[in-house]
Fold this sequence. Notes:
This protein has 313 residues and is mainly β. The chain has helices at residues 15-34, 73-77, 167-172, 257-261; strands spanning 37-49, 55-58, 64-72, 85-89, 96-101, 107-108, 114-119, 122-138, 141-142, 149-157, 160-166, 176-178, 181-182, 190-197, 204-205, 210-219, 222-234, 240-245, 248-255, 270-273, 280-285, 287-288, 294-300, 303-310. The strands form five sheets. Strands 2, 5, 8, 10, 11, 12, 14, 15 and 16 form a nine-stranded mixed β-sheet that branches. Strands 6-4-1-3-7 form a five-stranded mixed β-sheet. A five-stranded mixed β-sheet has the order 22-20-17-19-23.
Amino acid sequence: MKLSKRVVTWPFDHFGLKLLSLGLALLLWMVVSGDETVERGLRVPLELQQVPAGLELLGEVPATVDVRVRGASGTLKRVAAGDVIALLDLRGARPGRRLFPLTPDQMRVPFGVEVVQITPAAVAMAFEASASREVPIAPAVDGNPAPGYVVGAMAAEPRTVEIVGPESAVKRATEVLAEPVSINGSKEPVHETVTLGLLDPSLRLKAARSALVTVQILPAPLERTLRNRPVHLRNVGPHLEARAVPAAVELTLRGKRDALNHVDADDILAFVDLAGLGPGDYSLTVHADSTSDTGVARIEPASVQVRVTSGQD
């Protein structure tokens, strides 16, 4: 009969490793037992996951929630912003108003940290079916064209863009806003690429974010003629005298009917500028001051003969 050999383990086998393990265990116990368990309040981000396709969130959703966490003081001191996140799974959402509870199981926390309280304990959300449709772009202008000119037709390219959002909001939308085009002092058509936007924050543009807007600037439709307006001589040099031939001109104003009717003849001054000119004969262009609502379309004659002489002559 064959006898099995019995292996005897002596207590002092691998004594060094056993002593090292005991020392590490004792050190860990000392560290843990010496680290006080505390609680701490945190404001953490709320992350929405698995939002079903074809549904739109209505209204504002909290971006953060308040939580109380518990753990060793040393562990909580090392918790940084973003280490704790509330995760809300919305895969079961349906149209209508819904209440989603927040539990510690839905929190992502570092090892050694326990969530003991969440405020609010539930989040209310409303959902609506998503919809889309084409909506026209509404061009806009900023400022006024040059005196005597008016704003004509405005057009955007593309003319319409597709918007997306909750079905009820999409049905209410009538236009997409365009950043105003500056036309201050313009006499020619203005072309500008502008940014598009929507007033309703629940709506968004599906693709296009900008459009090319063209604003026609046209001569005002009505004219008024001022006859025998004297030509004023500006900036005559010291000790000099000047005389213009002819001494009066005809001014044709252009503008809207109301603006032209309210213009006083003395509001529009015809003049030539003699700055820097000495004695002599000159052919000078006639200019005219205009009001903010009317422009000078023509001056007849467009130039006059000016003789500048010494004051002693």
